[in-house]
Amino acid sequence: MASHEGLVKYFDDKVPALVVIATALTPHFRAELQKGVFDAVISQDSGHIVRSAVRLMRATIDAVPYNQLQARIRTEIFRKEN
Length: 82
Hints:
Number of strands: 3
Strand order of the largest sheet: 1-2-3
Number of domains: 1
Radius of gyration: 17 Å
Distance between the termini: 24 Å
Structural class: alpha+beta
Order of helices and strands: HEHEHHE
Shape: elongated
Helix content: 40-55%
């Protein structure tokens, strides 16, 4: 978490025109989002990414069709307001 803390310290006194977007909605980043250090946090379910990759590789190896809807990775964007 040391790198996260360094980022927060660096951007804490940011220039008002600077838009800061973080990735991975950790409890620490959520708190900083609420304080206004970040303008948004983009998050994806890393477990879903791994499972989708494994399903796709397995379907490719087995030469069977795969469900494209399962391979879609949802991206969530969090702002202070939500």
